[in-house]
Amino acid sequence: MSGLDEERQARAVLTSICEPGHLKLARLISEHGPIATVDALRCSGTESAWGQRARKADGATLLVEAKQWGIRFVIPGDEEWPVQLDDLEHGAEVQGLGGIPVGLWVAGPWSLRAWARSSVAVVGARAATRYGEAVASDLAAHLASGPGEYSVVSGGAYGIDAAAHRGAMVCDGRTIGVYAGGLDEPYPRGNARLFEELKGEHVVVSEVAPGIHVTRAAFLARNRLIAALTVGTVVVEAAARSGARNTASWAAALGRVVMAVPGSVHSAMSVGCHRLIRDGQATLVCDADDVKALLAPVGLGPDLPERGADRVLDDVDPHLLAIREAMPARGAVGPPELAEKCGQTVPRVVAGLVELEILGLVKQDEQGMWRLKRPTAGKQRSEATIW
Questions:
Q1: Helix (H) or strand (E) holding 276
Q2: 45: β partners
Q3: pLDDT tens digit string along 212-256?
């Protein structure tokens, strides 16, 4: 057996016996290497839980069984390894977790490294509102398609995660599911169909071996992978305390761009987003163009409009506007009265009314009086839009 094969088996064992993101394990591997770490654990006393598990684990068997499930094991140095994960080695730590993954269990027909090279995390509350799910779906669809498309990365959970994955898939974009448990079975089970779609047509990844069940610590460790894989993280909805805010913390610690979508001030599911924005920890974004503008190299992002859509009166001459604004909202008026109200001469007012009539903004009745012309229903324009 080659040294690389032995290392791969040792790393596979460690992903099956140790909690992900454990700093002690990261230090052991950094100082002694994965093979020596496994050997030392197997020689440790019975008081060590990792040691007891190590003596029972067989790396070769794990790799064979994973292959039968369509799962491959990627380790640092492999062609498919996403190099941006190496940023986790440089001291980033959140809630006592950190370190580069020992290895990644990956399924799907595409290269994790290629898809993660240009990717954005879209995360948020599991108990999402309809507003939040709609925003996440629309955001992901536009991020995953069109100019400057990104892979959309999320955690496969209910709510915002699922909406983000589905939004990317609807437009035939790329999406990556990062899971906290083994890839041999879906979690949560209610998203089984989504999991199978991601596994069969996109990419799913986990740092724990097949057969390992989800733990709370694994979710927190998983969040660091989502943040590290991507160039930026968008939080769509988040309660005051949430996993999405934990992901945002990881993104900030790694120097990634952190963004948040605002919601109703009455919504408990937007409290986390509002606090991120309030405290300067995230930039407010409303759509995919906002996100792309923040992530793109200087000068290459989309042009963002500085004002709303053009209105009918935007290009009207100021003296014509003064005449129109002097007209009553209801009823008709004659040129002399109008001239007195707007402070212009009667001939100038008459000429202005003719120009406004050509523009479709006023009309003259049979008595020669003038009144405002209301837009027709076919134009789908309200008085508020005109003004």
A1: helix 271-278
A2: none
A3: 988 888 999 999 999 999 999 999 999 988 889 999 999 999 999
